[in-house]
């Protein structure tokens, strides 16, 4: 019995040391920041922790952005916010390009920057042990939350934990102050017009909250900047830079959205208002044009309702875009042929909602991203439909 208790005490007292080698004096620990890519899940970049020890032959990149497309119910779980992510490990640079993370990121034309952390040997060992413990099969899976718990915030937390409350952030860095989660998101979607519009429509008020510098680090480049300007306090009270050295491992070639693609986006967004202005006298109230508007905006409203009440993201609640894309438009679409009197009041209220929704979008989005054309079209047609239902 005594032996069992001793073993149990030993396991509880030293849980992180199990299975982790003692790093050599040659070891270095780094934060790897990868630039944005072309796929939607790479738009904001990526962060990983790299531990390299040539003395022991250790070359491990700890990557919190791993998920399995082949998993059962992948898309359903992704939409509902129940998609499990995992911590995986692999070499940064490997002789065989097939297994090299660096070569993979190069092939995607994504910049790769290394920040060597100014850690003591004890802090390096602590970080290594934390990552090894987290990489175990029973610990490596986590519930991904895009803005709160992702591939950037997890490395941030591990770096801070390993440093033992010795990191001091630069509170004078105004660059990381005063923006919301949505503002940071839109900064990375300037060239991705459809993605920017779709994400803004789908996400609600929670991402309009102003972030602290630490919260803004859900964006990998923000974490890079935050650590670059941070200090670390030694036991003797001396303050030193947290980042010992910054190395650019690969510089991406800038690629801009083509003029044709940008033009196509604006043509599509403006097309309802253009059709309305060109065929103003030929569009019959309650006809195909009005029914199409009601049906399309109603379906999007239903989707937004499902995202609000049927998901666990925490970022699709209180979506004021539903002032524009109302799920009740589906009912209006069905009832339009009967023209009940109450439908007139519905369209009057819908006009007010369009104005309110436009103001909220402009206030929080810092722009309307092409929706102004649709909003004007809806306002004008709601007016005609209100008069149409009064008769």
Key features of this structure:
391 residues; alpha+beta; seven-stranded antiparallel sheet; three-stranded antiparallel sheet
Structure report:
- Helix 4 packs across helix 5, helix 9 (about 260-280) runs parallel beside helix 13 and helix 12 (about 340-365) packs antiparallel against helix 13.
- This protein has a 7-stranded antiparallel β-sheet with strand order 6-4-3-2-1-5-10. The chain has a 3-stranded antiparallel β-sheet with strand order 7-8-9, with no helix packed on it.
- The protein has helices spanning about 1-15, 75-80, 100-105, 120-135, 155-165, 180-185, 195-200, 220-230, 260-280, 290-310, 330-335, 340-365, 370-390, and strands at about 30-35, 45-55, 60-65, 85-90, 110-115, 140-145, 165-170, 230-235, 240, 245-250.
- The chain is elongated, with a radius of gyration of 26 Å.
- About 45% of the residues lie in helices and about 15% in strands.
- The relative contact order is 0.11.
- By secondary structure, the chain is of the alpha+beta class.
Q: What's the overall average pLDDT, rounded? A: 89
The main sheet comes to:
7 strands, antiparallel
SSE series = HEEEHEHEHEHEHHHEEEHHHHH
Number of strands: 10
Computed over alpha carbons, the radius of gyration is 26 Å
Straight-line N-to-C gap: 90 Å
Number of helices: 13
